[in-house]
Specification:
alpha+beta, 5-stranded antiparallel sheet, about 35% helix
Amino acid sequence: MSSIFTKIINREIPGYIVAEDDRNIAFLDIMPLVKGHLLVVPKVEVDYIFDLEEQDYAALMRFAKKVAIAQEKVIPCTRIGVAVIGLEVPHVHIHLVPLRTMGDINFSRPKLKLDAEEMKGLATKIKASFDQVG
């Protein structure tokens, strides 16, 4: 059975996609820690990040860096935090979390609930920034 992320990649279910290339995709987390929290996901469905092929791992990290640069231009923050936990969905994913404080990346905190219009607006702004990053 496909993961929820594969279903977003295949456009079987909607996602707030902000960036994509031939190997990877980035979209807004629908249960964010803070506004602008993104997930960066390889299109190949692998459960554990260190099981990725070397070239897929390297491509994922390069893509995540480019996404984070675009994200930081749109979301007011001190820096972008990076987390790989991988227990909640059996598909590799990197959390890119805009940080103002260390507490912003505390995954035990209550998640935000943003409405669809706010999510669409954020996705549009980050996508435009990503397209400019090149």
